[in-house]
């Protein structure tokens, strides 16, 4: 018998998550005869007796059935092969659900039958052979890429296509960190949340709470190129960067390899796309309090629901309040976050979601400890009152979608935001007496405003046997920045008797005073093609970048402009047994700042990747296994000009060749797992700096991780994981080597029952063994995060 699959579309209104249900064996037989694959919207609450059928416009039968199920809150099973190419006359609304389904199916030769688990669409002719005893089917829910999912397994993602598409059918490597993974590990930062993903390196600068430092396939991906909900979170200047609290995310998607065809200027290693929590009746409400070492105190909540009886208007609000320190006790780790959102289903074809966020945070501006030569001490050289990174940010945006008909729909995402940053720290120098440090006050004061938009037309149509999903769009970003960099006098500090509360004046001697304005725009198209079990994709993009810098001290104004064309090709074959081999090719570009000795602006670096891989999702399971081989090249890298030592030329090249293995599985209702292994063979293949043929700095050859969460009977649960980072070189000459290290994480949780359903008490520890490690880069050394322990009490309903 062919495998029966259950596919889910994102629900407009539902009140419970999809769960596999028992279907009559007759239904199984009928669906098998129809071609095996069943499409099933997410399981909703059982319809009330006498429920009225919703109004559905005429159009594609498959779309009409899906919309009917979503609006009526029912489970509706059907074979895509049986309904493909058929039209529905629609139905005006009113009457019973059975009458409404009959009108939708009029003229199709199909009928809807009610079963114990919902409705199923079958051929019009029935006989008694269908009436067999029930049997259980292990089904796999293919969830939405935007709605909450239970567990660690995510079937769909949006980053690679800007559409809601199964990962198994996408010819690119994608890792997804779900909200449940974030919650089980009790992490606050995105950097920590993705630490178990294949090909991802974190912690290269030790503990630096000012920003996330995430590298993918050997290339840094996040500074100034963060993405939230598919829109760029730009960064400019020095530390004017948007911050994202992990608790406010529904998921994090790591798309590996060049992705410029949909997102413009981007690292060749890939992108990290953060997906915000948004209104959904599938989401559970939660309140939680935490307490931990380093004076960690935190409270957070995530609540939502519907504002009208029909459920057309939904809301959700996420809040975080954290008052904490770091392992350097003078450095704060404070956050205040409020993120409300509202979703309005204006009509069956139109939806608007508004997302807002306000956040204040404070942490240390100089998390590094004092360094003597190449030796990192345990002494912090700052001042508790003066030393700080203080940031205030807010964003407001919307996501709008309207379906004109079964073929065309338009989507527009827009977000405006502002970030104000104060970064103050003390720069030490040795006085020569062995215990006194002279210090200078440094201040960096930045303001940034940004606007990001993405407007696209999604066209679904057929040309012969080819089924197309064509995405055609234009995105635009505008970034306005101002920067003041100043220096001043500061009192010295005695290492033997440090005083961390001395008066330090705000620095007033300007070292830089700059304004900047950037315009980034791009036109793109990508066609996703289905031909039987083949999945093909092809994309092309043209980008334009214009930057203006004003030096208010020197009176110099500079203007630069870049443009680039990038593309992507992919092919995948989907076997019936769940195997999906694929191959892909993609390019990227990333603008470079500065000019050469002739005053000419540097050209963008370019990325090019060849990748082959194999994905495997065993039918009927919530398991995804991925293996990929890649060859990634970055060109136009700056290197020394042999004819002019004061100049740099762009003839350098860096290559990463690697293997990635990843497994994510909800093995059972009690056991969940993520595991990964990455091998990267990086090499500087062209350079005039004396490092040609050597490994680039800070790129480990080996990364590995394993995390398990097991829920015992009677509410007790245990979780634990290990993260291994291989040795890497700390300088270009490869004469300094950073040692490898393994970090252990663990947790225990207890779910109360009886009258305390939804209450959980948990204890989590990161770096359980308190492993102390140091990572150096060109003479600067960084100490890794020490052990942290957090106790939490939460209530979900």
UniProtKB/TrEMBL annotation:
It is a multi-pass membrane protein. GO terms for biological process: nickel cation transport; siderophore transport; zinc ion transport. Pfam families: Plug (PF07715), TonB_dep_Rec_b-barrel (PF00593). Its main location: membrane. GO terms for cellular component: cell outer membrane. The keyword Glycosyltransferase does not apply. Residues 74-124 form the Secretin/TonB short N-terminal domain. SMART domains: STN (SM00965). InterPro entries: Beta-barrel_TonB, Beta-barrel_TonB_sf, Plug_dom, Plug_dom_sf, Secretin/TonB_short_N, TonB-dep_rcpt-like, TonB_sidphr_rcpt. Keywords: Cell outer membrane, Ion transport, Iron, Iron transport, Membrane, Nickel, Nickel transport, Receptor, Signal, TonB box, Transmembrane, Transmembrane beta strand, Transport, Zinc, Zinc transport. Residues 1-44 form the signal peptide. It is found in: Cell outer membrane. One of its GO terms (molecular function) is signaling receptor activity. Belongs to the TonB-dependent receptor family. Transports the metallophore pseudopaline, which is involved in the acquisition of nickel and zinc, and thus enables bacterial growth inside the host, where metal access is limited. Is probably involved in the import of pseudopaline-metal complexes. This is Metal-pseudopaline receptor CntO. It comes from Pseudomonas karstica.
